[in-house]
Amino acid sequence: MRHIQRPDEHLLFALPTMATTDAMAETLRRDFHPTGNLVIKSHQHASFSQLDSVTPEDARLYADHWFTTSARRLVAPIAVTTCDQVLSAALNQKSTHLRLLAVANHHVVFDEVHTFDAYQRELLVELLAWLGATRARVTLLSASIPHQDAVDYRNAYVHGLTRDRKRKVVVPYESRYPGHSLIDVAEDGELRDEVEADVPLSAPVEPVGFVTVTSTEVAKTRAGWALQQMAEHPKCHVAVVCNQVDPTVETARAIAASLPDGRELIVLHSRMTRSQRSKVESHLRSRLGPPPRHPGADASDEAVAAYESELAGYTTAPPVVVVATQIIEASLDLDFDIMGSDLAPSPSLVQRAGRLWRFRDEVHRVRRHGAAGPSRTMTVFVATNKDGSLSARGMFPYSSAELRKVHDLVTKRPLLRIPDDVQSFVDDGRVTIEDLNADVAWAAEVQRDFGAKMQMVASANVSKAKLLKDVIASPTLTYGALMSLTRLPDDEDAMRTRYIDVPGSTFIVFDSGKDPSEFVTAGPVPANIMRAATGNQVRAWQQATLPASGRHRDDLLALHAATLASLGIEEWKPKAAVLERQLPVDLALRDVAARARQADGAKDPMGAFDDLLGWA
Predict the structure, then answer these.
(1) Which of 95, 247, 296, 327 has the smallest set of CB atoms within 10 Å of its CB?
(2) DSSP per residue over 135-173, as a string?
(3) Closest to 69 (Cα-Cα) out of 53, 81, 87, 83
(4) Is 13 helix (H, G, I), strand (E, B) or coil?
(5) What is the pLDDT of residues 105-160, one digit of tens each?
């Protein structure tokens, strides 16, 4: 089991969102394809293992049907998963033993760890102790990690390495940005600790200026700001980043109503079908992704000519305005000339600012702006109540404790020098789980408006597996201690891995009406979908899956009920396990579902599917 002694250790890549997981899975599939290795993807809505192999013979070596549960997928030689699937190993649950076995036999890479909320950070600390005790290699990646988090993570791993039950061993640490640290045990048994500053950037990086705009009607403010920027800078690419899907849709609609000629509007958020989102992301990469690379001094004339042609198209592409959620801060490598963003945690603002003036040199910016300007500027939209206080509804999915700190930061320190100010900026914006639990008024308002199930520290302490105290450092490990790892908590909400978690569902979207969208499955739901769905059908339907939560989930659940009724099905119990959590809906029955929602007292109009906006 000591995979560290083997040259062929497995790889487990954990990312913060389904979008980043999907993107990394595709990257690793391309990279590992020539080696014959298989890559398995796992997240809440990836109910099909999607094995990729060089030959069908290789695929048969793996019982892909065995990988139908999230815990089992972690055992795969190369697994790409959302961080929640890995952090669940630090919870008491029936599959904890399998998750712990899986992570102990992989090189575990956690990407974008700055996105973890306070509760996720507690789970990671507990899990790192286990990974240290099993000598598993761990890599934590982030461009903006708070100093205290780095200290906690390093010490947790050391406590596991040294089996230090009382946590007396503390490793001093000085943050260096940009930089990296390494902790290991040398051959002589001594702890090896290295902290190094990375090579300074070869060219100075322009500071980012923050301009805050407060409003009680933020959607109108965002749209008005974007239209003004397009009018003043007609050649520039403009981005508007929102924290929630509904405001993203509302802002996009307002912009679309007055969109200038020659300007393309692109919308991106999580409430889109997989094929729709994939197409949007691909389009964004082609328009706003990294510039083409020069083929080199030894390249042929044809290759150089092709490069110059591609570069000319890249730099003179028609301008776009992008309205998106925080998806673009982590999962897409894009470059914008002008950006406005909702108020967000300090690491997120740093990440969003990294998409501003990312690739183009000063010559290209002058060409677009007409003047390079003294600094990059990000406009920060702050939702307020009529009395001027910060709106809790506008903060979701973040906490008021967190955003109040960041609001003070961008107000008092409106200029962010990179890299000099990044570490202090993220440190000063950090909150603890105690801060969140003390914010009672905010929690009550979020629960009322969003129906969010709050993960409180009391239930977190009940559900955490206590790996360090009861297992790793125990002088007399008992069968009872091991059994406790798989004990299910009385409160199912204690099984969650995020401080805020809104229940969601995944739907397979069909449309038996006229002129169905290219992003859904055309035609009615097959009458035999419950008992005779084939593997090829299931694969095809994955492209039409759509996640939803809140009132939109309620709308689609009503549409699902209408769909089943039309097929004479009383209860959704498909024979194919991969379809258990994917609910079929037929858009042609939307009016039937809308009447059912109205009869139940729903006040908001029924949602609809749109080729630009997704389900809105």
Answers:
(1) 296
(2) T--EEE--SS--HHHHHHHHHHHHHHHHT-TT-------
(3) 81
(4) strand
(5) 899 999 989 888 888 898 899 899 889 888 889 999 988 888 899 889 988 888 88
